[in-house]
């Protein structure tokens, strides 16, 4: 299989078509459905630091500019903290009020083209955010008659913000900051100029495109932000554009070559690559991962646009480790690590334990966006404790470990282990103190599985997350050779923690959400998250446990759910649920989207961006528990292939299947660990070709063999 399989999808175009009558509201509810909660169905561009979306209304083409590190940073709730819009870049076109508008996007490099039509006049606007510089380029052309247009930089009116704007020769500039009544001052600067036309108002002629460059930078990245962006646009020329575009395409080509996958379903393939594109465009800054919506288009996003810790924040990153996009996954760690001092304070003052206790939502740099709500109903219900909004949940910090555990198990990078060990240790400290040993088993009390569900006993999600936490701390402790004297206690907790609670529904044994307290929930999938992302059940679990899990999947039937579809598909795959049903539901799920890949009617932004990518990776290559299974969830006898899926054990695995016959199995070992593979050719011996030299012959259903660092192993049926 060619490593550049993604090229097949370079021709896939994201199309957004708008009727002008749909966008008669104010700019707050802008074109192409950019509503006032921050979600959007517009084309999405970005480089993991600067983000941009685009829409059209009236006679104005508006580009919504964002910066991942531009927040109002104050530890208070109710819109006193959260990500904010950097600014708007407006292109106003004379005589184009109510024009027809559509937009297309190349997934291969994010280049987006808008098409405007009015009375036979056609204008195109081609735009892209540089993958390697904080620069944006917009190229405008007329296809027939000349057009007159002007440009401007603006920002939402906000009494909390300081705004300065002006013109310096042929440069438009804007600065926006939050410096009053904040914990940390933030500022962003934007500059824009035409690099091949003079002035700020233009008459566009056929055959000569207008090229505009914008620079965006923040106080965190550059001290004198305005000087920085003005100098950046001054130094941009038509000649430099060619080199920058080559840099841009090189970055994207490298990104797509990290891994790839193929099945004969164009709907799922588009969703697969679109999800990975989305996360590449919004996640790269290690200190400022994307918030709930990824793209900030308003100053009042729903839920403050925060990092919501009871799955919404983490789920956007689930797929990135297996898809070998580790750099896009690692930013999720930054806010979790930075919040540790406050988490320790909460553990001490709320639960009177060691360790860390996290509220439902946080921001970057230790900021807490859900602190001190004034809502009386929260206080009456006991959802607020010591000013923090917990909803009675004790599992948020442990939830923060699910992706850390993935990255560790998929890389075995000791530097990464040292980075996350303090966090993992504090989670372990918390649960050592919080668990109660009763009648020979460890029990969890007073821990709500759902927000505000009450003082539940043994919530099934927490039981899974605690298992994941102690398995991880044991692995990290052994790898780093620290705290080895504590391992006996951790193993005892794992050996004696309470079993997952069950119940009978419709005559079948299924999981119960808690042992005492909430038994079931009709519109959410938390009852299967002990399976995934907590890794609490695998195909190596007991038959009884697997059957209970499959019964639960059938009973819940949450394939299309505004909460937790991103874990429901994975849980079904993990327990060997009917692959034909999974495949059919995944196809329907991929169709239930806006053209940019965001789920229809889902208020939670980017959390579902990579649901399809995660599911397909797992269907073709499962490695939970350090056991690699090839094509375990493939439906029917269809052909499929993948290259460089990253698995537990720090292996990069490739294989293909056609007519039910597996071939081209290759494993690249990064760390030289033992590899366990379920034999892809049952009842046949296999032979290993190690770095081009004939290796040993193995037999059996489960094959285990030693590997060397950076060794490439081809696995074949033995003659």
The dominant shape is globular
Please tell me the CATH architecture of the largest domain by its name: Alpha/alpha barrel
Main beta sheet strand tally, sense and closure: 9 strands, antiparallel
Content of β-strand: 25-35%
Give the total of beta strands. Answer: 36
Helix content: 25-40%
Give the averaged pLDDT, no decimals. 92
Please state how the strands of the largest beta sheet are arranged side by side. 1-8-9-10-11-17-15-14-13
Separation of the first and last Cα atoms: 23 Å
What is the name of the CATH class of the largest domain? Mainly Alpha
- The total number of structural domains is 3
Rg over C-alpha atoms, rounded to the nearest angstrom = 26 Å
Q: Structural class given helices, strands, pairing?
A: alpha+beta
CATH topology of the largest domain: Glycosyltransferase
What is the count of helical runs? 17
- Low-pLDDT stretches are 1-36
Can you offer a commentary on this structure?
The protein is of the alpha+beta class and 719 residues long. The chain has 3 domains: 19-256, Beta-galactosidase, Chain A, domain 5 (Distorted Sandwich); 261-630, Alpha/alpha barrel (Glycosyltransferase); 648-717, Immunoglobulin-like (Sandwich), CATH 2.60.40. It is built from 17 helices and 36 strands. It has a 9-stranded antiparallel beta sheet, with helices on one face. Strand 13 (162-168) and strand 14 form a beta hairpin. Helix 7 packs parallel to helix 11, helix 11 crosses helix 12 (460-480) and helix 15 (565-574) runs parallel beside helix 17 (611-620). The chain is globular, with a radius of gyration of 26 Å.
């Amino acid at each position: 299989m060619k490593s550049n399989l993604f090229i097949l999808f370079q021709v896939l175009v994201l199309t957004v078509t708008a009727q002008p009558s749909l966008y008669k509201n104010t700019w707050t509810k802008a074109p192409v459905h950019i509503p006032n909660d921050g979600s959007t169905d517009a084309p999405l561009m970005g480089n993991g630091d600067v983000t941009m979306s685009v829409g059209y209304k009236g006679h104005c083409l508006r580009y919504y500019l964002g910066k991942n590190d531009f927040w109002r940073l104050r530890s208070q709730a109710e819109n006193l903290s959260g990500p904010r819009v950097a600014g708007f870049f407006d292109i106003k076109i004379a005589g184009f009020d109510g024009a027809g508008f559509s937009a297309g996007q190349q997934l291969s490099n994010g280049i987006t083209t808008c098409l405007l039509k009015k009375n036979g006049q056609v204008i195109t606007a081609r735009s892209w955010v540089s993958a390697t510089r904080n620069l944006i380029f917009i190229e405008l052309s007329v296809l027939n008659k000349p057009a007159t247009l002007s440009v401007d930089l603006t920002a939402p009116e906000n009494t909390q913000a300081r705004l300065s704007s002006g013109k310096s020769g042929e440069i438009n500039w804007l600065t926006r900051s939050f410096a009053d009544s904040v914990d940390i001052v933030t500022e962003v600067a934007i500059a824009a100029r035409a690099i091949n036309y003079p002035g700020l108002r233009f008459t566009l002629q056929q055959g000569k495109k207008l090229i505009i460059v914008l620079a965006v930078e923040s106080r965190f990245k550059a001290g004198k932000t305005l000087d920085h962006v003005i100098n950046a646009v001054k130094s941009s020329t038509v000649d430099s554009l060619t080199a920058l575009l080559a840099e841009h395409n090189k970055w994207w080509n490298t990104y797509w070559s990290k891994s790839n996958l193929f099945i004969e379903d164009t709907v799922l393939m588009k969703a697969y690559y679109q999800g990975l594109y989305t996360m590449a465009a919004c996640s790269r800054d290690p200190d400022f991962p994307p918030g709930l919506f990824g793209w900030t288009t308003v100053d009042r996003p729903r839920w403050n646009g925060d990092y919501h810790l009871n799955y919404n924040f983490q789920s956007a990153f689930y797929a990135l480790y297996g898809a070998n996009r580790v750099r896009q996954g690692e930013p999720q760690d930054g806010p979790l690590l930075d919040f540790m001092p406050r988490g320790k304070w909460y553990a001490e003052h709320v639960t009177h334990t060691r360790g860390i206790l996290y509220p439902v939502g946080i921001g970057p740099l230790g900021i807490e966006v859900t602190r001190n709500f004034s809502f009386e109903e929260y206080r009456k219900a006991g959802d607020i404790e010591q000013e923090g909004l917990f909803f009675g949940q004790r599992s948020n910090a442990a939830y923060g470990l699910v992706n850390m555990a993935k990255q560790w198990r998929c890389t075995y990078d000791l530097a990464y282990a040292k980075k996350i060990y303090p966090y993992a240790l504090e989670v372990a400290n918390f649960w050592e103190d919080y668990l109660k040993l009763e009648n020979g088993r460890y029990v969890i009390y007073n821990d709500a599985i759902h927000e505000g569900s009450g003082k539940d006993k043994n919530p099934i999600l927490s039981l899974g997350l605690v298992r994941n936490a102690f398995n991880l701390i044991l692995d990290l402790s052994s790898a780093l050779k620290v705290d080895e004297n504590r391992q006996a206690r951790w193993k005892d907790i794992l050996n004696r923690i309470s079993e997952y609670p069950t119940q009978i529904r419709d005559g079948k044994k299924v999981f119960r959400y808690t042992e005492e307290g909430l038994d079931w929930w009709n519109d959410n999938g938390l009852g299967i998250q002990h399976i995934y992302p907590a890794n609490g059940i695998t195909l190596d679990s007991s038959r009884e446990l697997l059957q209970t899990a499959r019964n639960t999947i059938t009973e819940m039937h949450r394939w299309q759910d505004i909460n937790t579809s991103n874990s429901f598909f994975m849980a079904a795959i993990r327990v060997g649920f009917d692959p034909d049903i999974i495949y059919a539901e995944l196809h329907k799920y991929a169709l239930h989207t806006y053209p940019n890949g965001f789920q229809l009617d889902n208020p939670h932004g980017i959390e579902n961006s990579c649901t399809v990518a995660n599911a397909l990776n797992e269907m073709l290559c499962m490695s939970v528990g350090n056991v690699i299974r090839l094509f375990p969830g493939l439906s029917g006898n269809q052909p499929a292939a993948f290259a460089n899926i990253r698995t537990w054990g720090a292996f990069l695995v490739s294989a293909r299947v056609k007519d039910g016959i597996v071939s081209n199995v290759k494993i690249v070992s990064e760390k030289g660990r033992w590899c366990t593979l379920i034999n892809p050719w049952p009842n046949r011996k296999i032979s290993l070709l190690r770095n081009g030299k004939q290796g040993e012959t193995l037999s059996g259903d489960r094959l285990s063999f030693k590997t060397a660092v950076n060794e490439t192993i081809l696995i074949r049926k033995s003659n």
